[in-house]
Q: What sequence folds into this?
């Protein structure tokens, strides 16, 4: 049985189609990352699974429970960390977490210690008695994540868990999410941050315009891109570094694309770098063109998204 | 039940620590009754005890205020982004709505407790049953008004500004065109039919009747009970249904 399963899930807001017949599954005890730009339907899907929104049509099940028919039962096994924590202006972080822990059934004897541990872990302890309205953006985000880490639900949903958080904080949050998965929770993360997706994901589902474009492990997704490996070459200036050499490099088997990246610099998109690089070095040796550096990189999930959707992810502000 | 109490207390404790707004309401009532009510009663000759009449009218206005605040509270939750959090908690929707209604009820009880005690002391002549009846009437009216505001909240999902403008405008009309400050029989013929459309007319007249006012200047109590009950049941029921459909997005289905 899947932990999460949707079939032909449709959600419309008036004339806007947020989800267009989404088929989607998540295995138990895995971290599934939903990757997509703003407006791709990620948050709508999360809100439907959290039983906050009702689908227009289609089915969605969490741990075998139907979101439309058994919403209260679902809410008893899930927790959601929202994109933005708002609306608690006069409350303090510690009392928000105490309330959340109590209403989610965390035993009274464990609450205090758990809250202290999580708040210290996410560097919120010093701010525990500040008013919510005086917290920074990063602190409110960490508070939002803390709710789930204290609750430790069977199914945890994180909507952009580390946005507005500094890199150190991001790593702490990601580490805690991994720990939650290792304890047996199924986790769904929505993000448009490539680094976050790569760090967290057991599997990635690429969403675009309310539909699932592709779903696989990060490794497999990268391998699916023809010309996915990128080789950057820097040659020594000289008479042998010619246009003919560039043409010959582009003729090497496995070359998908070769572009001039600067003076004496080339960037080659190749199918398998490990096969292409020896051929390239032989050719350069034969043509007496001296290589100063060779750098092999693999495609990012940004490239994966571009490959499958033809679009660039909006990640520059978040990454 | 524990969950409902937790939900109510989570918010209410901030209203009560310190209970400034409640005390301010009590002070406002005392000043208004002690100065304005006392002076105006000298000018009003058609009613023998206008200060008492006014005191009950003022309590009904306070009830209206807290009822509409409770209804609007839900809309504020939605706009502040807190509603999704509340909707995600592991409790049923009915418990969530009940907690909001209970919070409104407690706020109403706290707010009118002192004004009602002062009014009862002023009136002097009342029975235990008549006081209980008056309190029930005020609560039914409060729930009816809260339901009315909930019912109108669908406007807020389109525009919070229009919602605020409509509710403020409607509130001033509902209060002025009612018998809160003057009996129906004293109203000009062009005003009287409009006053019969205001729920406050029925609330104010029923409370006055229960607390011993002259029935000849008040509405038929059976009529008032029927209207208030119908108002509370219909607006709360419809308001919740409408809101649930809006909030959970079924409307677009």
A:
């Amino acid at each position: 049985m899947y932990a999460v399963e949707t079939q032909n899930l449709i959600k419309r807001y008036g004339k806007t189609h947020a989800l267009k017949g989404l088929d989607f599954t998540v295995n138990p005890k895995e971290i599934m990352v939903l990757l997509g730009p703003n407006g791709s339907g990620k948050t709508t899907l999360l809100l439907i699974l959290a039983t906050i929104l009702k689908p227009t049509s289609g089915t969605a099940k969490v741990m075998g429970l139907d979101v439309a028919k058994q919403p209260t039962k679902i809410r008893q096994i899930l927790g959601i960390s929202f994109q933005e924590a708002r609306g608690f202006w006069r409350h303090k972080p510690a009392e928000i977490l105490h309330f959340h822990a109590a209403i989610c059934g965390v035993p009274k004897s464990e609450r205090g210690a758990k809250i202290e541990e999580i708040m210290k872990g996410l560097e919120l302890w010093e701010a525990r008695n500040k008013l919510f309205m005086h917290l920074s953006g990063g602190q409110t985000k960490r508070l939002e994540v803390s709710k789930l880490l204290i609750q430790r639900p069977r199914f945890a949903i994180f909507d952009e868990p580390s946005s507005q958080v500094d890199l150190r904080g991001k790593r702490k949050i990601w580490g805690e999410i991994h720990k939650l998965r290792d304890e047996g929770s199924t986790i769904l993360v929505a993000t448009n941050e490539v680094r976050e997706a790569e760090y967290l994901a057991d599997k990635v589902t690429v969403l675009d315009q309310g539909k699932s474009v592709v779903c696989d492990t990060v490794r497999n997704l990268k391998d699916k891109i023809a010309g996915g490996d990128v080789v950057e070459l820097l040659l020594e200036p000289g008479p042998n570094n010619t246009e003919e050499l560039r043409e010959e490099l582009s003729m090497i088997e496995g070359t998908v694309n070769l572009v001039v990246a600067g003076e004496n610099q080339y960037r080659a998109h190749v199918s398998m770098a490990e096969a292409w690089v020896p051929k390239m070095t032989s050719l350069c040796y034969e043509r007496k063109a001296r290589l100063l550096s060779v750098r092999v990189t693999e495609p990012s999930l940004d490239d994966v998204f571009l490959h499958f959707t033809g679009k660039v992810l909006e990640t520059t502000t978040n990454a | 039940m524990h969950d409902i109490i937790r939900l109510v207390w989570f918010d209410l404790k901030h209203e009560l620590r310190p209970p400034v707004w409640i005390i301010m309401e009590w002070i406002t009532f005392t000043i208004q009754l002690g100065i304005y009510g006392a002076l105006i009663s000298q000018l009003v000759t058609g009613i023998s005890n206008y200060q008492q009449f006014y005191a009950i009218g003022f309590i009904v206005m306070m009830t209206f205020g807290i009822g509409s605040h409770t209804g609007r509270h839900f809309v504020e939750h939605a706009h502040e982004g807190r509603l999704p959090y509340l909707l995600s908690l592991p409790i049923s929707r009915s418990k969530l709505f009940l907690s909001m209604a209970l919070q409104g009820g407690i706020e109403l009880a706290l707010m009118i407790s002192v004004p009602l005690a002062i009014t009862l002391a002023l009136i002097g002549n009342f029975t235990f049953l008549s006081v209980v009846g008056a309190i029930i009437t005020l609560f039914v009216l409060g729930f009816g008004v809260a339901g009315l505001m909930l019912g109108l909240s669908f406007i807020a999902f389109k525009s919070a500004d229009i919602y605020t403008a409509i509710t403020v405008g409607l509130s001033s009309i509902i209060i002025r065109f009612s018998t809160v400050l003057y009996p129906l029989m004293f109203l000009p013929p062009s005003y009287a039919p409009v006053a019969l459309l205001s729920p406050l007319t029925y609330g104010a007249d029923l409370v006055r009747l229960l607390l011993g006012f002259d029935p000849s200047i008040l509405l038929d109590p059976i009529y008032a009970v029927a209207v208030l009950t119908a108002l509370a049941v219909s607006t709360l029921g419809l308001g919740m249904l409408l809101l649930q459909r809006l909030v959970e997005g079924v409307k677009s289905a």
User: Anything to note?
Assistant: DSSP finds ten helices and no strands in chain B. Chain B touches chain A at residues 3, 6-7, 10, 14, 77, 80-85, 87-93, 248-250, 252-253 (CB under 8 Å). Chain B has one domain: 2-247.
